[in-house]
Amino acid sequence: MSGFEKPKEKADERTVGLAKEIFNSEKALDDLRQELSVPDRKIGCSFDAKVEKVIRDGKNEFGVLQVRIYLAEKTDNAPRQIGYFSFSFGKHHAVSQELYIEFNELIGEKQDKGLGLELECKIENFCRSHNIWDIYNTATSAPAGVFGESRFIGGYFWARMGFDFDEFKESTRHRIESWRKDLIEFAQNKKIDILFDPLELTMPFEFAGAMGLDEDNHIVSLGKKFFIEGEIKWFGHKDLRFNSQCSRDFVGYLMLRNRFDLLEEYFIEPLDAERDKEFIDYLAAELAEKGKADLFTKYFPQILEKDIEIE
After folding, report:
1. Which of 172, 199, 232 is the last residue of a domain?
2. pLDDT tens-digit profile of 25-42?
3. Which residues contact 64 (CB under 8 A, 6 or more apart)?
4. Rounded Cα–Cα distance for residues 83 and 65 (Å)
5. What's the whole-model pTM score?
6. Mapping DSSP to helix (H, G, I), strand (E, B) and coil, where does residue 219 land?
7. Which end of the chain is more exposed for a tag (fewer CB within 10 A), N or C?
8. How many domains does the chain have?
9. Is 73 helix (H, G, I), strand (E, B) or coil?
10. Is residue 11 located within the same domain as residue 91?
């Protein structure tokens, strides 16, 4: 697996100082390690951190902190490394913090098991708790052999996680038109009938969720095939505010995957009745439609009693 090596034992003073400046906390890196540990799956987390660069913009100066995360699974013998993340945290112009996800990989046997979803929820939870509201990445999908022995599925994974186009780096209109054309051509080559209006596809999440009908009249995930079987690269941005379209799309995918446990822990329990009223109304209605309105009863019973009719 890419990036696996023994992490350093302790960050140096310069790194600790930058971490404190970015997160406004002396124990943020320890918080990150604890957040990304998954005791129920016997998965622990270690990391090393360093000052990647210091950027000067006129009179302003801001640093970028690179954090490499190593996930290991406890076994009867020695711990076995199963995942590697590389993050860059920055605080620009002493105003806003952001996260750039440079690399994210789980070994093959740990993919498609829901672990990636859980870790994404944990990363977002850490960011929100440390006043980081924007995540960026470069989403890449490529078959095995293009960038090494492993296939890359980031183009599909990050779309499903609710990432939208980073409009500072993407010519969004051109990208959307190009994807529509390529998706129609891909469906024709695979002999799949499309079950949607291509003109309605405007976000990566919508492309990834596109469905089709194969030659045997079976419904297939055309969008997933399109993202995974081809070679795709796009620049992504996710707004972590609860009521953003990015968060709503991610919530929709959690429901599709029946991960109501993650939905409750990371998107219901942290909500504030006054601050998040609009998102609470939206989420309560969505859950009521799916017969899961009871998830709200212990947090916001007044909403269920007053505003939502449950059949």
Report:
1. 232
2. 888 888 888 898 888 889
3. 51, 52, 53, 54, 55, 88, 89, 90
4. 20
5. 0.87
6. strand
7. C
8. 2
9. strand
10. yes
